[in-house]
Structures are given as structure tokens and as C-alpha cells.
Amino acid sequence: MRWEILSPEIPENLETLASLLLKNRGITDIEKFFHPPSPVDLAVAEVGIDRNALNTAASRVATAIEEKQKIVVFGDYDADGICATTVLWEALAARGAESIPFLPSRQEHGYGLSVKALEDLCQTEQPDLIITVDNGIVAHKAASFAKDLGIDLIITDHHMPEAGVDNLPAALAIVRTTKLCGTTVAWFLAREISPKSASQQLDLCGIATIADQVKLTEHNRSFASHGLDALRQTKRPGIVALIQASSIEQANITSGSIGFQLAPHINAAGRVGDGYTALRLLCTTNKKAANALAYELSLINTERKDLTHNSVSDAKLQVGDQENSKLLIVASRTYHEGVIGLVAGRLAEQYRKPAIAIAIGETEAKGSARSIRGINIVDIIREVRKDLLSVGGHPLAAGFSLLSSKLELVVSSLQTVAQEKIDENLLLETKRVECVLSHGLVTIQTAEALEQFEPFGMGNPRPRFLLRGIKIIDIQSVGKSGKHCKLLIQLSTEKRLPVLWWNCGEIDQNELAATTELAVKLEINNWQGKRSLQGVV
Questions:
Q1: Local structure of residue 436 (DSSP, 8 states)
Q2: Beta-sheet strands, E only, within 51-204
């Protein structure tokens, strides 16, 4: 294991530790970091949204409301897209607009605004105005189709255009920035429509900002921080029910609560069920309905876990033949397309390589990719766009579709591109740590001090420290199929630290027992009213 130690300094106390962490993150405005301003006070120029485009969009919405025109909020089926749909639909409802939400089907329509989705939508509705949230920036054909139908289109999105900033769909207005998540882009339009609703929707903004893994610095930190505050106090029936169903103490919600519990439940609906289940949960004002929907989401999430486990097991068998490949690609007719992103993510995490998982259908195949730091996976996929039906995403995550008959060609082409473009040095197994931590600072007081850096996420990860001179005195396999480990390590201070290591089941326990250094995060374990210190690898 290679360590990338961000700071050579070994802090002597909590004060020097905090200074080191701020320096590692490039934080110069300490007051703003620990006390971020409310998003309600943010100006659109600060987040990179064009004021003229926002004004055009808001004006068209005002006309639609005044003239009782039908407005459709066209969303997406992931947590960001569902929260964004809720935010904009609630703002429209607050103004008395005649509006409905629409979520595309992952299986029938695929991601984002499409001609097929518009055709299906227009069979039951006659919209005068469609507003996309968290999608639309690459929907050129669908935008032209809407124009031919005489439907005005407003796009709100945070994704990158497919081929440069000038290559944008034909829409009445495009409200966009890559600095935020889809929900908070939509929130700026919602704030124009119904200013009074803005502060009441920060709970949704917080969930989406953390769930979509945008960089949690500057404005996103404002949305995440104030969003967590709002979640700890929210009375929104759906979120309260989901918090209870997830066995979370509402007053103690953290970014981890969202990333590992709330968001996966919301995402599960769009992955293996019906995204409308999660949308209804967030929108309902009825507590009884909220409890029923939260329970339904819990069942769907359990199904999602089982599908993911089975698919990952199969994928690892396929990976065995790709030892020399810079890009891992697995494909199967048994994969559920709703979990292939999770499969790719597990492979990328375990093997330290970008990975693609493909669900093969009768005529079309859907692919989902996840990458590692330094490797832009969407650029690699776009190198073979001529053989694809669609492609979109971010440097670290992307999706695409293709004809099943072209699968072998596309896989071969992707491997060729990856071999040419990926620097082998980026694939070396390296773990980034803040610094070497003295054993004297391995205390619950240190863990409590670290909580001040919440919310954690991209750009502000939960601090990981290198502990040297340790001895592992006990190893236990825990969890389903023993895929996790619980360690007990002896420190030089004669104290012992329990450590959880998720997904370590394939690690050689004899080799692990001989190690004398370990990279861990220090966390507080709240169990049955007792607080104790634990490490997490």
C-alpha cells in the first residue's frame, strides 16, 4: 500500500490538527467555512447562473401561471432529480400553477428528456410549458421535437454539454451551472417563482447536494450545512417517516446519514421500482401516507441490495480475465440496469480502476461507468460515441446506451481507448491520508472536534489518518457472508481502538494481522445512548 500523506506535519494538539486540516483543504476563509452563509442570501452570479436566462425562465413561468397554462416539471429518477422535481413543483403549487411532475421510466425512456418520453407524456397531457430539472442539457433531439409540437421548453441542469458550451439544445431558456447539483439549480428558479417557499425547501437541497456528491466547498457547503440544519428540524411528513424507517435520530443527522441511509432509499425507487414512490413520499402532507410510502421504500431498498450483491458477485468473476486492462468492463443479460452503476462503483473501489457495467437487453444495452481520481471516464466513453445511442455524465460517473448487436465492438473500442489514454501511474493503489496521527490524539475528544468539519463529502472528505506502530490483536468477520471485518488494534498509549473495515472479506487475514500501520477515520459510535470512539478504514 502506498500512502499519499497530504501534510508531513504531525499535529501535537487539536488546535494544530484543525489548522492542518484547513490547510490541506485550501481553506483560507475559516469563518465562512465553519459558518457558511444561508443559500437564501446567495446571488445567482455567485453560482455561475446567467441572470438573463433566469429572468427569461421566470417570466415565462409567470405568464403560464397567469394564463392557467399546463406546466410539466420533467425530472429524473435519482435522489437529485426527485428532490429537484419536488422543489420546483412545490414552488409552482404555492403560486397556484396548473402543474404536474413527470419522471421518465429508467426501463422505457432511459435518462433525461427524450423523444420517447415526450411522446408518452403527450398521450395523456397537453403541456404548454415543460421545465426540466437535473437533465436536458444534451437533449437536442427532444428539444427540437418539443418545439415542433409547439411546447415551450425551459432547461435547468448542472451537467456538462456534450460538445462544448456553445452546443446547447434549442430551448426558450437554459438555466445552468456546473457548480451546483440539479436540485439547487432548480431551487434558484423556484426562488424566483415563490420566494417564500425557498427557505422551506433547504431540507431537500441538503439531501440532493450530499447525495449527488458535488464538491462540498463554497456554495455547496452552504446548501449542505443549512440543509442538515433544516433536516434536523423538518416537519415534512415524508422525510420524517423516512428518517424513522432508517432508524436515524433526527436531531443527530449527519452527511453520512444522507449518503448511506436516506439517499439510497430514495435512489432505490428509481433503480428497481418506480421513482414516483419516492416523489410521492417527499411531496405528501399526509403522515399516514408518508409512513406507508417509507415502508414501501424500505422494501424496495432491500431488493436493491440483493440485486446488487448478486450482480457484484458475478462481476468479480468476469474481472478475473482483465488483470492487465486499465478499464474493467463487465456485461450480462442478468444485470438489472438499475444497479449497474452500483456494480461499477464497487469494482472501481475494490480494484482501483475505472469500471463499466453493462446490462444487455434484447435490442439495446445500457452501460454505467464509475472512475477513480484523475481519470475522466466520460471523455473516454465519448471517444466511441459514433457507435453509441447516447452518452452523458461527469468525469467520475457516466452512463450510455448502445445497440446490443454492437456490444463486442464497443467493448473492444473502449479498451483500446483506455489503454492509450490512461496513465498507469493513476492506477497504483494509493490511499490519501491527512497526516500521521500520534496515538495520544486518538481520543473521543478528537472525534468530536472533527465533527465541526461537517458536512463531509467531495472536496471535504471525512479526515483519514495514518496510525503507525499499531498492533492488530483481534480480527472478526462480520456482516452478511462475512464480507466486513471488525478489528481491535493496540496503540502505544496502552489504549485499544475498535476498527470497522467495510468490504474487506477477501483480504488475507494473516497478512492483515502482521500489519503495523493502518489508515483510519475517527468516528463516534452512538449505540443505545452510549458514545464511544471507533475507527473506520
A1: B
A2: 70-74, 98-102, 129-133, 152-157, 173-176
Domain range holding 397?
320-426
How do residues 171-216 score in pLDDT, each as one tens digit?
A: 999 999 999 999 999 999 999 999 999 999 999 999 999 999 999 9
Domain assignment present for 233: no
If one counts the domains in the chain, the total is 3
Scored b (16 or more CB within 10 A) or e, 6-28 reads: beebebeeeeebbebbbebbebe
**Domain holding 328: CATH number?**
3.10.310.30
Task: Judge if 10 and 84 occupy the same domain.
Answer: no
Tell me the pLDDT tens digit for each residue of 55-74: 999 999 999 999 999 999 99
Closest CA to 193 of 15, 8, 54, 36: 54
Which residue, 170, 197, 224, sits at the end of a domain? Answer: 197
pTM of the model: 0.90
- Taking phi first (over 0 means left), then psi (-120 to 50 degrees means alpha), and beta for anything else, what does residue 164 get? left
Q: What is the pLDDT of residue 520?
A: 98
Cβ neighbours of 428 (radius 10 Å): 9
Instruction: Provide the CB-side half-sphere exposure for 505 (13 A, CA).
Output: 9
Whole-number Å distance between alpha carbons of 200 and 4 = 42
Helix, strand or coil, per DSSP, at residue 212? coil
pLDDT band (50, 70, 90) for residue 506: low
